[in-house]
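User: Hi! Is it possible to get a structure for several chains at once, not just one? Here's what I have:
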Amino acid sequence: MSRQIGPKLLPPPELVEALLSRDNFLIATHVNPDGDAIGSCLALSDALNSLGKKCVLLDKHPIPAQYLFLPGQDKFETFEAFNASGKKIADFDTLVMVDCNHPDRIGLSTKELIPAIEELKRALAGGMFTVVIDHHQTENGFGNIRWISPETAATGMLVYAAIKKMGVTITQAIAKNIYTAIVTDTGNFRFDNTNAEVFRVAAELIDYGVSSSETYENAFESYSGGRFRLFLGVIGTLWIDGNIAVSTVTTKMFEETSTAADDTEAFVSFPMLMKDIRIAMLIRELKDGTCKVSLRSKGAIDVARVAEQFNGGGHKNAAESKPVWQRQSACCSKSSGK
Amino acid sequence: MSRQIGPKLLPPPELVEALLSRDNFLIATHVNPDGDAIGSCLALSDALNSLGKKCVLLDKHPIPAQYLFLPGQDKFETFEAFNASGKKIADFDTLVMVDCNHPDRIGLSTKELIPAIEELKRALAGGMFTVVIDHHQTENGFGNIRWISPETAATGMLVYAAIKKMGVTITQAIAKNIYTAIVTDTGNFRFDNTNAEVFRVAAELIDYGVSSSETYENAFESYSGGRFRLFLGVIGTLWIDGNIAVSTVTTKMFEETSTAADDTEAFVSFPMLMKDIRIAMLIRELKDGTCKVSLRSKGAIDVARVAEQFNGGGHKNAAESKPVWQRQSACCSKSSGK
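Assistant: Yes, the chains can be modeled jointly so their relative placement is included. Here is the combined structure:
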């Protein structure tokens, strides 16, 4: 079932019941995981572990460098590592999908032949019990139990509410993970999803021993020298037309700075410093010559709807296209405003 | 009297008593006012007005562009405007100094001959009743009633506590001003002064109708085109040695972008994006050829103590020198690390 909830976060009773009654959890989140995805999974895993349950955390991609400070991050396994450890999908009674709501988002649509992914696809086709905890707009009916709350700032807020409802003691590690989840998806309390409930939860988490400044430093001010040089390069490509700002990052720029796609997190927002800029785009060249476009909006324009035109999605103020433009053609004509 | 207070902000009873019993207030804040200074003054003024009291808001300098969105900001008068309006210092029974604790900080040490300043100096010498509400470390014993709380994130937190204790209904305008005061001095909840009480107050202010994203946009993302070009220019001067980053801004750069000193707010922090940078400095050339240095620290180093060596001051993680270095000499040798 799906439920819209108000600012006082109340998890569906059947969600809490499922988490309390089941024992062996696969917890999976979306490809290219961000702080909300990682922090939410880690906090949920700690809570379930404290109740004596078994959890394995799965992600298609490794944890980005800026989230390696999160307590327990080394518990995440890629699907390959899952296989290498000899574990079997069939040993788990429940899949919890966190911060996403479709199997494609956890990487099951990959063309790579990875045994754990094939096993998981078969298990889902065979009716594996699935719980979804997410706050993304796009909804598709997947999952036996679904708590999808697009009006909630971060999936971490939902996980926190569920953990409290499960009666688990909040540890400093859980608090750090939830706090990081929240600051990631609220842009450290600056996006318009930052409501009073977000601040109330933040206050509680600080009381549980989180340092706001340390978290900020780790999540937002931990650029490597290469990443910083990449950022300077991206700033150098900035192109403005009216209230739209476009910047680009090429595979060559990644090579020259020994960086990768996840190093561009937040770059898109830089031109938002300007009062008149309402939409910012970052065009990122992929290795196959296509491009992905990250979109940010200040105010009224819903960039999730723009991204959907290009098979992407996201939130009203932050979205991403699927790779659609070809190098030297639409990608470049887009960057010159045609 | 001065009082150190804990996270539950309790204004000294004699402060509340003075505000409630007196009638004609001059409210003054520091030169080059920031969001904490301006928002705190405006909120206090609204509260006192709602009790039927008369307030005049004084600042030596005009309100910077990024704070012109604050409700009531047009109530601020420069000393010159105060004179031009025909008002007399002698008509006021109380001076409230907000976000500063010495008359020099409100501009009384100026060499310019401004009648209102001369009147105010005479009034203070003659024992004018003075209330100080501040959170800056430097303390000097000035003021009949002093509430100086260096461990509090923003003077806005103190003013908010005082307003509540006075029994005034919090309006949306008061909430917006206090919220802006807090986000200015906590760097939108990222500095290490961001404790649980800050978040609790933020939650209350959101409940009173503040928009977190609108405030962020107004206070931090309202650069003019010229200010943005200036920022790009400053980024271009960046110079790094170990964990110290130095950038510079010259009078020529201001001229070329039609900007002024207050447009450099926050520029100093840009290199903090890098994990290894622990101290950032922005050297700003003044018109007389001297330089001022803004300092920021991440973590253990107390830059207020560094700034004090150069007759400046501030907070542990954010401080500023007095103008001390000469052009072509110490200023430039400083910027090349000697």
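The mean pLDDT of chain A is 91. Chain A has twelve helices and 13 strands.

User: Great, thank you!
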